[in-house]
TrEMBL record:
Lineage summary: Eukaryota, Viridiplantae, Streptophyta, Embryophyta, Tracheophyta
Topology relative to the membrane: Multi-pass membrane protein
Protein name as catalogued: Phospholipid-transporting ATPase
Organism: Apostasia shenzhenica
Gene from which the chain derives: ALA3
PANTHER family: PHOSPHOLIPID-TRANSPORTING ATPASE DNF1-RELATED (PTHR24092:SF180), PROBABLE PHOSPHOLIPID-TRANSPORTING ATPASE (PTHR24092)
Co-factor requirement: Mg(2+)
GO (cellular component) term, any one: plasma membrane
Domain P-type ATPase N-terminal: 36-100
Protein family (similarity comment): Belongs to the cation transport ATPase (P-type) (TC 3.A.3) family. Type IV subfamily.
InterPro entries per record: ATPase_P-typ_cyto_dom_N, ATPase_P-typ_P_site, ATPase_P-typ_TM_dom_sf, ATPase_P-typ_transduc_dom_A_sf, ATPase_P-type_domA, HAD-like_sf, HAD_sf, P-type_ATPase_IV
């Protein structure tokens, strides 16, 4: 087979022998995996893999209009007006089609232009990405082509700081040992560098001459959205090599600290993992919007009632006795007295088109515009929510939920990185049953203050405080650990810290200048601690780590020790532990393991029970001080046992099906009979302003729940530190750490354990619920707090007990759930959201908070140190928990007040306008005669009353931001929904009814004997124009009077809208012929004066009556 053929050549241009050989090997694709032939497009042609061009647009030139209109008409209001517009083209319509078509067209035009603009920006972004250059192997040289021309199986070269154009199989690197460093910030927000290692078999394919000879076959999983898993095999020269995520370079990641790499394309375009993860956040609708739907349905009911009254009236009124109507001869069916039922039905449809303005067509567009500006100009640019240290402003990722922020009653918060800073510092430790570290944590200070005790915070001369390390105990510093009771176990402790990790060192190989790139702040803190204790990790290769050990053999002496890393059993949320199998220079095989105390203690050998017991007490002590703990353990492995285990490990690693599950099962075989070394205690300090923020939110009537994976003692003390719990509260604690449950766990019967825990939880819930009801009945009763751990919560969320849990929780001011999983976080949130029908907000900063964030009405992500998963799944993003005060009490409350006023005002102004037409119907024999000119009706909502309501939605506020935060009790108005109740709607409806009556009848009665300048009596055009003038001026000034604060923008919009009406009528009356209208342009000025005199007379009467009410 020739090796120089270009993979970009069409298959038909290849030699027949090459085609036959390659195409003969192509097999039908197995549904469970795909087969890829590297560097051979002809062989891959039969499979028809997708191209690398991506499109994130919603529309194209062909689909924009039909799809865009379909999206718009999914709204009930738009569909309703489409039906009205169609109905207005029929003979039964009393109005010209333009009356309904113009406002509908304007609304659709604005919406479609917005959609087109957003989609155009997506298109420009897609073009920039698709046309980015990449070097592809053609023959024996690299040729630059755009990303969009890449195909599965191509060999590409990616240079330093460039992005990977597709999901690639890592083949070779300019770095030694076939490694490269990548940054995944575009994928998950993490800026820590990650190491990837190519298979040793492919290291040679770094140059184009050698790479052109590569003809490997890849069998791998089908495209999926799992970012952290990959299973596959590379078959090369009849040798099968297992592939793992370590050989996968994902599209969107960038290459760092590496000159260039060579890779083979595996997944392209929309089949790449990043594109398969680019799904939208679940669509959420605010509570106010759902209530608006009910108001619209009420308006439909009102419309039907008005039309029914008119239809019945028409059927009754039509009679031949009214001879002047000419009903004796041949007449239209709508006015035929011989069939009054048909008359009533046709009149019904006529009146539907006539009264269609009762439904505000521009309401949705106005609300969208208001919300969009609120987000982009107010929330996103609020300097009080800008975090200067990280240069992070607040970000509204959706504009659908602004007003929901003003009605939140329950907040569900993560602890680490949300209430705390996620800046981990090694603070204390326990080694061989001995505690080291004399510092005092924030939590301990708080406990001492509550008990009236003084704390001695004197630090020794050997105390060290730097990033990741804040430790004070001379017994371990500068080699003093050699004098401890058991220095050998101290060495194992330090070596476990220095070896069992996936940290990457960067910079100079000196303790002062080196920096550590770690997957989490905890891991970086542990490696920093090892360095400070004299075990300096400074170099990593794919197969080893190098540690400079000081004071081991002799005080003051250092030596570099290379530990061969044989296997890494990685940490995940299920395993809750990480292990490393390493070989010492002397051939000693050791497995080091670190993880949560619950999983480590389950795997300990039945030795050193005294140390195990003492260490458990130390863990509880550390937890009470608010520290994060990890257990460290090890075991020695014989060469025979390791070889047998490693064969199983390689077999599991090569599996294409259920690889992760098989790897976990194999890990269980070696992670047993461990010997406990000790435990670490890391401090994560509270964020600034958290206690005062929680206190303020509590005064606002908001109940805060903390959902954390930490131990109960840690969670309770954090709750104390941030004012969530205080000594004046009655605490209900439901824990699985009871003697009865422990005895059941010691017996090891899983069914019995489950039964015992469930019975215990049921008894606790019943007892606490009864006690809570008694305390709440007394006026002097204390506030209540509930603390429950994950095991008990699992049973409390059972169908038989969840109602009890919900009742008890709702009676508590604070709830702390500890040791909970991400799924339990979401379940607790959904329990309150769906069970109590309360508006909920979830806030978190990590990937484990995503399900909770998406389950709540409003999701808030913290732009922290755990990546951007939470932010990408959220509705709003802030940098600090304390910014919730401004987000909820200021922006949320203002948005709620403004939108309530906007909606009720829309309801009022449209009902007022429509009712004047309704009253006119009674004087026209219910015939469906229109009162207003078609253009008046068309432009009423879109010009003459549009701008003022938008200005109110943007600038109206009852109190300033400072007052909103100083008196948080004001927020309770939103929780109780004080401004959008049916009572409020009824009051506005009452204003509409009596003001429309006053405007209509005073205008009609006062102009009954009036004459225009030509001596003619006022006709329909004169009277309706005067009435319309009164309506426009009345509703605009009524809005001005309803404002809590009036700015120049209010005056400009209100008086500008009124002026726009007079300018319009001046021009409009001037261009009409005498045949069309009874008024000429020459008589317009005195006519306007007459209108205004009538208006002020009506206005004075109306508001005298209003204030009397």
């Amino acid at each position: 087979m020739p090796s120089s053929g270009s993979p970009f050549l069409d298959g038909s241009l290849r030699q027949n022998t090459v085609q036959t050989v390659r195409l003969g090997r192509v097999q039908p694709q197995h549904p469970g995996h795909r087969t890829i032939y590297c560097n051979d497009r002809a062989a891959n042609l039969a499979v028809r893999f997708k191209g690398n061009s991506v499109s994130t647009t919603k529309y194209n030139v062909v689909t924009f209009l039909p799809k865009g209109l379909f999206e718009q008409f999914r709204r009930v209001a738009n569909l309703y007006f489409l039906m009205i517009s169609i109905l207005s083209t029929t003979p039964i319509s009393p109005v010209h089609p333009i009356t309904n078509v113009v406002p509908l067209s304007l609304v659709l035009l604005v919406s479609l232009v917005k959609e087109a603009f957003e989609d155009w920006k997506r298109l420009q972004n897609d073009k920039a990405i698709n046309n980015a250059p990449i070097e592809v192997l053609q023959g024996q040289q690299w040729e630059t082509v755009p990303w969009k021309k890449l195909q599965v199986g191509d060999i590409v070269r990616v240079k330093h700081d460039n992005f990977f154009p597709a999901d690639l199989l890592f083949l070779a690197s300019t770095n030694p040992d076939g490694v490269c460093y990548i940054e995944t910030s575009n994928l998950d927000g993490e800026t820590n560098l990650k190491i990837r290692k190519a298979l040793e078999r492919t290291w040679d394919y770094i140059h184009p001459e050698k790479a052109s000879e590569f003809r490997g076959e890849i069998q791998c999983e089908q495209p999926n959205n799992s970012l952290y898993t990959f299973t596959g095999n590379l078959i090369i020269d009849k040798q099968t090599l297992p592939l793992s995520p370590n050989q996968l370079l994902l599209r969107g990641c960038s290459l760092r600290n590496t000159e260039y790499i060579v890779g083979a394309v595996i997944f392209t375009g929309h089949e790449t993992k990043v594109m398969m993860n680019s799904m939208n956040v679940p669509s959420k609708r605010s509570t106010l919007e759902r209530k608006l739907d009910k108001l619209i349905l009420t308006l439909f009911g009102g419309l039907f009632f008005m039309c029914l009254v008119g239809a019945i009236g028409s059927g009754v009124f039509i009679n031949r006795k009214y001879f002047y109507l000419g009903l004796d001869g041949h007449v239209e069916r709508q006015f035929d007295p011989r069939n009054k039922f048909v008359v009533a039905i046709l009149t019904m449809f006529t009146l539907i088109t006539l009264y269609s303005t009762i439904i505000p067509i521009s309401l949705y567009v106005s609300i969208e515009m208001i919300k969009f500006i609120q987000c982009t100009q107010f929330i996103n640019k609020d300097l009080l929510m800008y975090h200067a240290e990280s240069d992070t402003p607040a970000l509204a990722r959706t504009s659908n939920l602004n007003e929901e922020l003003g009605q939140v009653e329950y907040i569900f918060s993560d602890k680490t990185g949300t209430l705390t800073r996620n800046l981990m510092e090694f603070f204390k430790c326990s080694i061989g049953g001995e505690i080291y570290g004399t510092g005092v944590t924030e939590i301990e200070r708080g406990i001492a203050q509550r008990n009236g005790l003084k704390v001695d915070e004197a630090r020794s001369a050997t105390a060290v405080h730097e990033k990741g390390f804040n430790f004070d105990d001379p017994r371990l510093m500068s080699g003093a650990w050699r004098n401890e009771r058991d220095p050998e176990i101290c060495k194992e402790f330090f070596r476990c810290l220095a070896v069992c990790h996936t940290v990457l060192p960067e910079g100079d190989e000196s303790p002062e200048k080196i920096t550590y790139q770690a997957a989490s702040p905890d891991e970086a803190a542990l490696v920093t601690a090892a360095k400070k204790f004299g075990f300096f990790f400074y170099r990593r290769t794919p197969t080893s780590v190098v540690v400079r050990e000081s004071n081991v053999e002799k005080m003051g002496k250092s030596q570099d020790v290379t530990y061969e890393i044989l296997n890494i059993l990685e940490f995940n949320s299920t395993r809750k532990r990480q292990s490393v199998v390493c070989r010492y220079p002397n051939g000693r095989l050791v497995l080091y393991c670190k993880g949560a105390d619950t999983v480590i203690y389950e795997r300990l050998a039945d030795v050193n029970n005294n140390i195990n017991k003492i260490s458990r007490e130390h863990l509880e002590q550390f937890g009470s001080a608010g520290l994060r703990t990890l257990c460290l353990a090890y075991r020695e492995v014989s060469s025979e046992d390791y070889e047998k285990w490693n064969d199983k490990f390689i077999q599991a690693k090569s599996s294409l099906r259920d690889r992760e599950k098989k790897l976990d099962e194999v890990a269980e075989l070696i992670e047993k009979n461990l010997i406990l070394i000790g435990c670490t205690a890391i401090e994560d300090k509270l964020q600034e302003g958290v206690p005062s923020c929680i206190e303020t939110l509590s005064k606002a009537g908001i109940k805060i729940w903390v959902l954390t994976g930490d131990k109960m003692e840690t969670a309770i003390n954090i709750a104390y530190a941030c004012n969530l719990i205080n000594n004046g509260m009655k605490q209900f604690i439901i824990s699985s750490e009871t003697d009865t449950i422990r005895e059941a766990e010691d017996r090891g019967d899983l069914v019995e354990i489950s039964r015992v825990i469930k019975d215990s939880v049921k008894q606790d819930l019943d007892r606490y619920l009864e006690e809570a009801e008694q305390l709440l009945q007394s006026s002097w009763g204390p506030k209540l707090a509930l603390v429950i751990d994950g095991k008990c919560l699992m049973h409390a969320l059972d169908l038989a007990l969840r109602i009890r849990l919900l009742k008890l929780s709702l009676n508590c001011s604070s709830v702390v759930c500890c040791r909970v999983s991400p799924l339990q976080k979401a379940q607790v949130t959904s329990l309150v959201k769906n069970g109590a029908r309360k508006i909920t907000l979830s806030i978190g900063d990590g990937a484990n908070d995503v399900s909770m964030i998406q389950a709540a009405h409003v999701g808030v992500g913290i732009s922290g140190l755990e990546g951007m998963q939470a932010v990408m799944a959220s509705d709003f993003a802030i940098a600090q928990f304390c910014f919730l005060t401004d987000l909820l009490l200021v922006h949320g409350r203002w948005s709620y007040l403004r939108l309530c006023k906007v909606i009720t005002y829309f309801f009022y102004k449209n009902l007022t306008f429509t009712l004047t037409q309704f009253w006119f119907t009674f004087q026209t024999g219910f015939s469906g005669q229109r009162f207003y000119d078609d253009w008046f009706q068309s432009l009423y909502n879109v010009i003459f009353t549009a701008l003022p309501v938008i200005i109110v939605g943007l600038f109206d506020k009852d109190v300033s931001a400072l007052i909103s935060k100083r008196y948080p009790e004001l927020y309770k108005e939103g929780i109780r929904n004080m401004f959008f109740k049916w009572k409020v709607v009824a009051i506005w409806a009452f204003f509409s009814i009596y003001q429309s009556l006053v405007i209509y009848y005073f205008t009609v009665i006062s102009s009954r004997n009036g004459h225009n300048s030509s001596g003619k009596t006022f006709g329909l055009w004169d009277v309706s124009t005067m009435a319309f003038t009164c309506v426009v001026v009345t509703v605009n000034l009524r809005l001005l009077m309803a404002c809590n604060s009036i700015t120049r923008w209010h005056h400009i919009s209100v008086w500008g809208s009124i002026l726009a009406w007079f300018i319009f009528i001046f021009i409009y009356s001037g261009i009409m012929t005498p045949h069309d209208r009874q008024v000429s342009c020459s008589s317009f000025l005195p006519f306007c004066i007459l209108c205004l005199s009538h208006y002020f007379f009506c206005f004075r009467k109306m508001y005298t009556l209003q204030y009397m009410c």
